[in-house]
Write a structure and sequence with these properties.
This protein is mostly helical. It has 9 helices and 8 strands.
Length: 303
Protein backbone atom coordinates (compact mmCIF):
# COMPACT_ATOMS: atom_id res chain seq x y z
CA UNK A 1 0.00 0.00 0.00
CA UNK A 2 2.91 2.27 0.75
CA UNK A 3 4.22 1.79 -2.78
CA UNK A 4 0.80 2.60 -4.21
CA UNK A 5 0.62 5.83 -2.22
CA UNK A 6 4.05 7.02 -3.35
CA UNK A 7 2.81 8.85 -6.51
CA UNK A 8 0.10 10.55 -4.48
CA UNK A 9 2.60 11.50 -1.80
CA UNK A 10 4.79 13.23 -4.41
CA UNK A 11 1.79 14.96 -5.93
CA UNK A 12 0.63 16.13 -2.52
CA UNK A 13 4.07 17.58 -1.84
CA UNK A 14 3.88 19.48 -5.12
CA UNK A 15 0.40 20.68 -4.24
CA UNK A 16 1.57 21.87 -0.84
CA UNK A 17 4.30 24.00 -2.41
CA UNK A 18 1.99 25.25 -5.17
CA UNK A 19 -0.71 26.21 -2.72
CA UNK A 20 1.76 28.17 -0.57
CA UNK A 21 2.78 30.32 -3.53
CA UNK A 22 -0.71 30.62 -5.03
CA UNK A 23 0.21 28.73 -8.21
CA UNK A 24 -2.62 27.59 -10.44
CA UNK A 25 -1.91 24.18 -11.97
CA UNK A 26 -3.29 20.67 -12.18
CA UNK A 27 -1.76 19.68 -8.83
CA UNK A 28 -3.81 22.31 -7.03
CA UNK A 29 -7.00 21.23 -8.80
CA UNK A 30 -6.43 17.51 -8.04
CA UNK A 31 -4.91 17.58 -4.57
CA UNK A 32 -6.98 20.42 -3.20
CA UNK A 33 -9.66 17.89 -2.25
CA UNK A 34 -7.22 15.47 -0.59
CA UNK A 35 -5.38 15.51 2.70
CA UNK A 36 -2.77 13.32 4.27
CA UNK A 37 -3.97 10.97 7.05
CA UNK A 38 -2.40 8.18 9.14
CA UNK A 39 -4.54 5.07 9.22
CA UNK A 40 -3.14 1.99 10.94
CA UNK A 41 0.38 3.36 10.82
CA UNK A 42 0.16 4.01 7.09
CA UNK A 43 0.03 7.50 5.57
CA UNK A 44 -2.80 7.67 3.06
CA UNK A 45 -4.79 10.37 1.28
CA UNK A 46 -8.45 10.95 2.05
CA UNK A 47 -11.11 13.49 1.00
CA UNK A 48 -10.55 16.87 2.64
CA UNK A 49 -13.96 18.47 3.11
CA UNK A 50 -12.39 21.59 4.63
CA UNK A 51 -10.88 22.58 1.28
CA UNK A 52 -14.13 22.21 -0.66
CA UNK A 53 -15.00 25.92 -0.67
CA UNK A 54 -11.47 26.88 -1.68
CA UNK A 55 -11.51 24.45 -4.59
CA UNK A 56 -14.98 25.54 -5.75
CA UNK A 57 -13.86 29.18 -5.67
CA UNK A 58 -10.67 28.29 -7.53
CA UNK A 59 -12.54 26.37 -10.22
CA UNK A 60 -15.04 29.20 -10.66
CA UNK A 61 -12.19 31.65 -11.15
CA UNK A 62 -10.58 29.33 -13.68
CA UNK A 63 -13.93 28.97 -15.49
CA UNK A 64 -14.38 32.75 -15.61
CA UNK A 65 -10.88 33.17 -17.05
CA UNK A 66 -11.67 30.62 -19.75
CA UNK A 67 -15.02 32.30 -20.53
CA UNK A 68 -13.32 35.71 -20.77
CA UNK A 69 -10.65 34.29 -23.07
CA UNK A 70 -13.27 32.66 -25.30
CA UNK A 71 -15.23 35.92 -25.43
CA UNK A 72 -12.10 37.86 -26.40
CA UNK A 73 -11.23 35.35 -29.13
CA UNK A 74 -14.78 35.46 -30.51
CA UNK A 75 -14.67 39.25 -30.64
CA UNK A 76 -11.28 39.23 -32.34
CA UNK A 77 -12.45 36.58 -34.84
CA UNK A 78 -15.48 38.70 -35.66
CA UNK A 79 -13.27 41.77 -36.19
CA UNK A 80 -10.84 39.90 -38.43
CA UNK A 81 -13.70 38.41 -40.47
CA UNK A 82 -15.32 41.83 -40.88
CA UNK A 83 -12.02 43.40 -41.92
CA UNK A 84 -11.41 40.71 -44.54
CA UNK A 85 -14.91 41.22 -45.96
CA UNK A 86 -14.47 45.01 -46.06
CA UNK A 87 -10.97 45.00 -47.58
CA UNK A 88 -11.14 47.42 -50.51
CA UNK A 89 -14.94 47.17 -50.58
CA UNK A 90 -16.44 50.60 -49.77
CA UNK A 91 -20.00 49.26 -50.10
CA UNK A 92 -19.69 47.37 -46.80
CA UNK A 93 -19.72 49.75 -43.83
CA UNK A 94 -18.23 49.19 -40.40
CA UNK A 95 -21.01 50.54 -38.17
CA UNK A 96 -18.61 50.85 -35.23
CA UNK A 97 -16.44 53.28 -37.23
CA UNK A 98 -17.27 56.88 -36.26
CA UNK A 99 -15.51 58.09 -39.42
CA UNK A 100 -17.20 55.82 -41.95
CA UNK A 101 -18.24 57.46 -45.25
CA UNK A 102 -21.91 58.05 -44.37
CA UNK A 103 -20.93 59.77 -41.11
CA UNK A 104 -18.45 61.94 -43.00
CA UNK A 105 -21.17 62.93 -45.48
CA UNK A 106 -23.37 64.09 -42.59
CA UNK A 107 -20.46 66.23 -41.39
CA UNK A 108 -19.90 67.47 -44.94
CA UNK A 109 -23.45 68.80 -45.16
CA UNK A 110 -23.00 70.41 -41.72
CA UNK A 111 -19.76 72.04 -42.88
CA UNK A 112 -21.56 73.80 -45.72
CA UNK A 113 -24.69 74.77 -43.78
CA UNK A 114 -22.85 75.92 -40.64
CA UNK A 115 -19.12 76.72 -40.87
CA UNK A 116 -19.25 77.80 -44.54
CA UNK A 117 -22.22 80.09 -43.88
CA UNK A 118 -20.58 81.71 -40.83
CA UNK A 119 -17.29 82.21 -42.67
CA UNK A 120 -19.19 83.68 -45.65
CA UNK A 121 -21.03 86.15 -43.39
CA UNK A 122 -17.81 87.11 -41.61
CA UNK A 123 -15.91 87.79 -44.84
CA UNK A 124 -18.87 89.71 -46.29
CA UNK A 125 -18.96 91.98 -43.23
CA UNK A 126 -15.26 92.68 -43.77
CA UNK A 127 -16.06 94.08 -47.22
CA UNK A 128 -15.27 91.12 -49.47
CA UNK A 129 -17.69 90.82 -52.39
CA UNK A 130 -20.06 87.85 -52.67
CA UNK A 131 -18.42 86.17 -55.66
CA UNK A 132 -14.90 86.70 -54.29
CA UNK A 133 -15.95 85.28 -50.91
CA UNK A 134 -17.44 82.19 -52.56
CA UNK A 135 -14.29 81.78 -54.64
CA UNK A 136 -12.02 82.02 -51.58
CA UNK A 137 -14.05 79.51 -49.56
CA UNK A 138 -14.10 77.13 -52.53
CA UNK A 139 -10.32 77.41 -52.93
CA UNK A 140 -9.90 76.48 -49.28
CA UNK A 141 -11.93 73.26 -49.49
CA UNK A 142 -10.32 72.32 -52.85
CA UNK A 143 -6.76 72.85 -51.62
CA UNK A 144 -7.58 71.20 -48.32
CA UNK A 145 -8.60 68.03 -50.14
CA UNK A 146 -5.54 68.08 -52.42
CA UNK A 147 -3.26 68.81 -49.45
CA UNK A 148 -4.68 65.93 -47.39
CA UNK A 149 -4.67 63.52 -50.33
CA UNK A 150 -0.99 64.21 -51.00
CA UNK A 151 -0.03 63.64 -47.36
CA UNK A 152 -2.22 60.56 -47.07
CA UNK A 153 -0.80 58.96 -50.22
CA UNK A 154 2.81 59.64 -49.24
CA UNK A 155 2.20 58.48 -45.67
CA UNK A 156 0.65 55.18 -46.73
CA UNK A 157 3.42 54.51 -49.25
CA UNK A 158 6.03 55.21 -46.56
CA UNK A 159 4.27 52.85 -44.14
CA UNK A 160 4.16 50.04 -46.70
CA UNK A 161 7.79 50.53 -47.67
CA UNK A 162 8.96 50.71 -44.06
CA UNK A 163 7.00 47.60 -43.10
CA UNK A 164 8.32 45.62 -46.03
CA UNK A 165 11.91 46.77 -45.51
CA UNK A 166 12.12 46.41 -41.73
CA UNK A 167 9.87 43.40 -41.16
CA UNK A 168 9.77 41.26 -44.30
CA UNK A 169 13.03 42.06 -46.15
CA UNK A 170 15.35 43.57 -43.50
CA UNK A 171 18.58 43.01 -45.48
CA UNK A 172 17.37 43.92 -48.96
CA UNK A 173 18.78 46.93 -50.80
CA UNK A 174 16.55 49.38 -52.68
CA UNK A 175 16.50 47.47 -55.98
CA UNK A 176 15.85 44.13 -54.28
CA UNK A 177 13.13 45.67 -52.14
CA UNK A 178 11.34 47.17 -55.15
CA UNK A 179 11.40 43.82 -56.95
CA UNK A 180 10.32 41.91 -53.86
CA UNK A 181 7.10 43.85 -53.20
CA UNK A 182 4.57 42.98 -55.90
CA UNK A 183 1.21 44.57 -55.09
CA UNK A 184 -0.44 41.38 -56.34
CA UNK A 185 1.04 39.33 -53.49
CA UNK A 186 -2.01 38.11 -51.55
CA UNK A 187 -0.36 38.03 -48.12
CA UNK A 188 1.13 41.50 -48.56
CA UNK A 189 -2.21 42.88 -49.74
CA UNK A 190 -3.85 41.57 -46.56
CA UNK A 191 -1.08 43.03 -44.40
CA UNK A 192 -1.28 46.39 -46.17
CA UNK A 193 -5.05 46.37 -45.72
CA UNK A 194 -4.54 45.98 -41.97
CA UNK A 195 -2.05 48.87 -42.05
CA UNK A 196 -4.60 51.02 -43.87
CA UNK A 197 -7.32 50.19 -41.34
CA UNK A 198 -4.98 50.79 -38.38
CA UNK A 199 -3.95 54.18 -39.78
CA UNK A 200 -7.59 55.22 -40.08
CA UNK A 201 -8.24 54.32 -36.44
CA UNK A 202 -5.45 56.60 -35.22
CA UNK A 203 -5.88 59.20 -37.96
CA UNK A 204 -6.81 61.94 -35.50
CA UNK A 205 -3.25 61.88 -34.11
CA UNK A 206 -1.94 63.42 -37.35
CA UNK A 207 -4.48 66.25 -37.47
CA UNK A 208 -2.88 68.93 -35.25
CA UNK A 209 0.26 69.16 -37.42
CA UNK A 210 -1.71 68.89 -40.66
CA UNK A 211 -4.08 71.69 -39.62
CA UNK A 212 -1.18 73.89 -38.57
CA UNK A 213 0.64 73.36 -41.87
CA UNK A 214 -2.47 73.98 -43.96
CA UNK A 215 -3.39 77.21 -42.17
CA UNK A 216 0.09 78.51 -43.00
CA UNK A 217 -0.36 77.44 -46.62
CA UNK A 218 -3.68 79.30 -46.85
CA UNK A 219 -2.02 82.46 -45.52
CA UNK A 220 1.17 82.25 -47.59
CA UNK A 221 0.15 80.54 -50.86
CA UNK A 222 -3.55 81.38 -51.20
CA UNK A 223 -3.03 84.87 -49.74
CA UNK A 224 -6.13 84.59 -47.58
CA UNK A 225 -5.69 86.30 -44.19
CA UNK A 226 -6.90 84.26 -41.22
CA UNK A 227 -7.44 85.73 -37.76
CA UNK A 228 -7.30 83.63 -34.62
CA UNK A 229 -10.70 82.76 -33.08
CA UNK A 230 -12.43 83.70 -36.34
CA UNK A 231 -15.20 81.85 -38.17
CA UNK A 232 -12.85 81.54 -41.14
CA UNK A 233 -10.21 79.81 -38.98
CA UNK A 234 -12.85 77.35 -37.75
CA UNK A 235 -13.96 76.73 -41.34
CA UNK A 236 -10.38 76.03 -42.45
CA UNK A 237 -9.80 73.58 -39.60
CA UNK A 238 -13.06 71.75 -40.25
CA UNK A 239 -12.22 71.46 -43.96
CA UNK A 240 -8.88 69.85 -43.13
CA UNK A 241 -10.36 67.51 -40.54
CA UNK A 242 -13.10 66.29 -42.86
CA UNK A 243 -10.90 65.98 -45.95
CA UNK A 244 -8.27 64.09 -43.95
CA UNK A 245 -10.70 61.37 -42.89
CA UNK A 246 -12.12 61.21 -46.42
CA UNK A 247 -8.62 60.55 -47.73
CA UNK A 248 -8.03 57.82 -45.14
CA UNK A 249 -10.89 55.70 -46.47
CA UNK A 250 -10.10 52.59 -48.51
CA UNK A 251 -10.47 53.58 -51.32
CA UNK A 252 -10.35 57.34 -50.62
CA UNK A 253 -13.51 59.37 -51.03
CA UNK A 254 -13.43 61.80 -53.95
CA UNK A 255 -14.20 65.53 -53.80
CA UNK A 256 -15.22 66.87 -57.23
CA UNK A 257 -15.92 70.40 -58.38
CA UNK A 258 -17.42 71.73 -61.58
CA UNK A 259 -16.11 74.59 -63.74
CA UNK A 260 -17.73 77.32 -65.76
CA UNK A 261 -19.35 75.96 -68.91
CA UNK A 262 -20.01 72.46 -67.56
CA UNK A 263 -23.39 70.98 -68.41
CA UNK A 264 -25.71 70.61 -65.41
CA UNK A 265 -25.79 66.83 -64.85
CA UNK A 266 -27.75 66.96 -61.61
CA UNK A 267 -24.70 66.43 -59.39
CA UNK A 268 -24.92 70.08 -58.31
CA UNK A 269 -27.87 71.95 -56.86
CA UNK A 270 -28.55 75.52 -58.00
CA UNK A 271 -27.24 78.32 -55.75
CA UNK A 272 -29.47 81.33 -56.42
CA UNK A 273 -30.11 80.89 -60.15
CA UNK A 274 -31.10 77.76 -62.04
CA UNK A 275 -30.12 76.83 -65.57
CA UNK A 276 -28.58 74.16 -67.76
CA UNK A 277 -24.98 75.38 -67.66
CA UNK A 278 -22.60 76.08 -64.78
CA UNK A 279 -21.60 79.71 -64.26
CA UNK A 280 -19.30 79.02 -61.29
CA UNK A 281 -18.89 76.38 -58.60
CA UNK A 282 -19.92 77.20 -55.04
CA UNK A 283 -19.45 73.92 -53.20
CA UNK A 284 -17.97 70.57 -54.41
CA UNK A 285 -19.86 67.31 -54.62
CA UNK A 286 -18.50 64.09 -53.05
CA UNK A 287 -18.29 60.61 -54.53
CA UNK A 288 -17.73 57.39 -52.65
CA UNK A 289 -14.47 57.04 -54.60
CA UNK A 290 -13.13 58.44 -57.86
CA UNK A 291 -15.71 57.85 -60.63
CA UNK A 292 -17.88 56.18 -58.00
CA UNK A 293 -21.49 56.80 -56.93
CA UNK A 294 -22.51 60.27 -55.78
CA UNK A 295 -22.78 60.62 -51.99
CA UNK A 296 -23.35 64.38 -51.61
CA UNK A 297 -24.49 66.93 -54.15
CA UNK A 298 -22.48 70.08 -54.67
CA UNK A 299 -23.77 73.61 -55.22
CA UNK A 300 -23.24 75.74 -58.33
CA UNK A 301 -24.48 79.02 -59.74
CA UNK A 302 -26.23 78.21 -63.03
CA UNK A 303 -27.08 80.21 -66.10
Amino acid sequence: MKQQSEPLRATYANYDQSFKYGASNENVQIMGILRSANIGGEEVYVYNAENKDIIIKHLREELKERDDEIGHLRTRLSQVSSEKIRQGNPNIADLSDTHRPMKLIELYYDLYSKEWTKAFEEMSLNGTGEKQTIKSLLRIIKHSYKFCMKISTEQLQAMKKSFAKDIIFPLADHAELKAAIPESNKELKEIFSVLTESRKRVGALSLPKIKQAFVQMVKMDLKIPIKEQSSLKLYVNRCVELCWFMCLQDPPMYVEWCVSGDHNTGDFSSYTRSGTTVNFCVWPCVRQYENGPLMAKGVAQMR
